[in-house]
Amino acid sequence: MRAIEVESLEKSYGSLKAVGGISFSVDEGEVFSLLGPNGAGKTTTIEILEGLRDADSGKRRVLGFDPWKQGYELHRKIGVIPQGFKFFLYPTPREAVRYYSALFGVKADVDKLLQRVLLTESADTYFLKLSGGQKQKLGMALSLVNDPELVFLDEPTTGLDPAARRAVWEVIRGLRKEGRTVLLTTHYLQEAEELADRVAIMDHGKIITSGTPGEIIARHGSGDRLTIRADEKLGAYLREKAGLAAEFDGHGRVSVRLKTKNDALSALKAIEESGLDWSDLSTRRDSLEDIFIRMVGENPDDQGNGRHPPG
Amino acid sequence: MRTLTIRETGATPRVRAMVSTKRLLADLSVFGKGYLRSRVGVFFALIFPVILILLFGAIFSGGGSSPISVYYQNLDSGQVGARFVSAMNDTGAVVMVQVPDSQNFSQYLLSQSASQGIVVPASFSQSFLTGGNANVTVYQNPSSTTSQIVLGITQGVVDRFNLYHANANATDVFGVQTVTVASGSYKYVDFLVPGLVGFSILTSPMFALVNISSEYKRDKIFKQLSLTPLTKAEWLLSKIIWYVLLTGVSFLMMSAAGIFLFGAHIGFSLGILPFLVLGPFMFVSLGMLIGTISNSPESAAVVGNLITFPMMFLSGTFFPVASMPAYLQGIAHLLPLFYVIDGLNNVMIYGNYSPALFDLSVMVVVGVAIFALAVRFFKWRED
Prior knowledge:
The structure holds two protein chains of two kinds. By secondary structure, chain A is of the alpha/beta class. Chain A folds into two domains: 218 residues, P-loop containing nucleotide triphosphate hydrolases (Rossmann fold), CATH 3.40.50.300; 64 residues, Alpha-Beta Plaits (2-Layer Sandwich). Chain A is built from eleven helices and 13 strands. In chain A, the strands form three sheets. Chain A has a six-stranded mixed sheet with strand order 5-6-7-3-8-9, with helices on both faces. A four-stranded antiparallel sheet of chain A has the order 11-12-10-13, with helices on one face. Chain A has a three-stranded antiparallel sheet with strand order 2-1-4, with helices on one face. In chain A, β6, α6 and β7 form a beta-alpha-beta unit. In chain A, 43% of the residues are buried. The longest helix of chain B is centred in the middle third of the chain and has 31 residues. By secondary structure, chain B is mainly alpha-helical. In chain B, β1, α3 and β2 form a beta-alpha-beta unit. Chain B has two domains: 230 residues, no CATH class; 114 residues, abc type-2 transporter like fold. At the A-B interface, α3 of A face α1 and α9 of B.
């Protein structure tokens, strides 16, 4: 069974179309990541699937439920960390987990849960005294109190320092190992590449591409590139004399798209023949980030990060 | 336990949420602990009202205990006017001094530098027996605290006469009444305790709920809670229960301060309880309503203050409403807090249950209406 099924989902706020008819599905036990810049419609999509917002139209089933109409049943089976998780100021993580256990009517092992999200040391610190990373970890602990089949994580690491980010990643890997389904939205391409089985890139309310990171790179990437530190003259030489797809980036770097294996050899030969200055020769392949920037037209890490610190 | 059902707005027409005692208590415990841990809340809810009692009690404690001389003219030829004068004397708080009918009353008060006087109208007995309208006129100097006390006492005695009139056989009940009237003298602090209990019933839930309901909305904490089985009704009820408990403690502390430090006379009876429950119910709901319909915590605070502050000063908190100009009294009667304080005065000072019952009915109607609006507009989630 599919954990999440979405077909032609639409949602507008007044004249603004936040989600413009997207379709995707998430298999059970899969980590699925929605990538996109701010305002792409990720949070609206995830909130519709959590049952926090109604959609204008389109089919959506989450664990077999209609999330808006059957939210009460659905919420017992899912865990959610909203973007920039905040909570009451004064409970300690221990009390907060007990509170959630009482609300869900389950007997949660408080110590185990806190240990799992690496929060044991701050178990008795008031929420308002926790650091941003610790608050986020409490959010994770609370989302797991009801032993959910499906976990929604809306930008769980935005604004966290690298160590806290990696700690959150470990928890997400743990969820996958236990066979839980995870829907993750993120700004961070590296995060999606590290954690997600499949990725969908969203922009302006549409999914512009989806698949495994490898599939996306194969589909939209430009293959291997040779880059050389050199000036425009070398670029021109390679284009004109060797017939290669060479571009000068304007910052002292020439890059050559290698369509075939032979291109690499002829490029090296032509560089030698040109007699021009060059250094730092290397080859690289497009990353998800290169493709993202090309398709969406901006660097996702430049936005939201730091400007809207959670906590 | 099935006591209340609330429909999720925008969801299926199915009525779902019931109140679970377990969840209610879990929420109450987290909220209560948080409240006690943030010292600010405790200060304003419990300590501050007591400080106000000490302050105002000290300012007005001089001269309150000896009876106040009140000049009067009794224009009534019947018996009821005379009974009224003796009922006033029987309160022990005033000594009635007669002014001959031939004198111009206001000129006379001026010549004696008196701050207050009472005129019993010629139609008093007639009106009392036939149910017509007659007004006892109280001359007063609004800046004088003794005037306010006299006004309060006169109001109390008039209320009692009206009460007996309502019981049909006026003369019969009247006899019983004179016995119960003289139970002590009224001092400023006697009015101050119910007034400040009302103050605390208004301010602590209002300020807190306006704030938390708008902040929880901004911080998406309501959304977070909506993903648990906790219902809106449970959340609201737990806040109401908390503020009822807090009001109970605050009431005991203020009464103790009034009684032991200033010798306030407070009639303790079960009749006080409904006010201590319905008052917080009304203002938790109102605070919730304001916070929930505002766009931001900042605008919520502005609206909250615009409603709270005038209500705080015009409802008889620090000064009896009867001492205010007529147009302000008219406004006071539109304020929900007026009925809380008027009711507490009736129960705690005058032992007048019939008008208190009226105050209580107003509170029930207004409280239920505000609660219904708050639940209607309070959204866990958005559509």
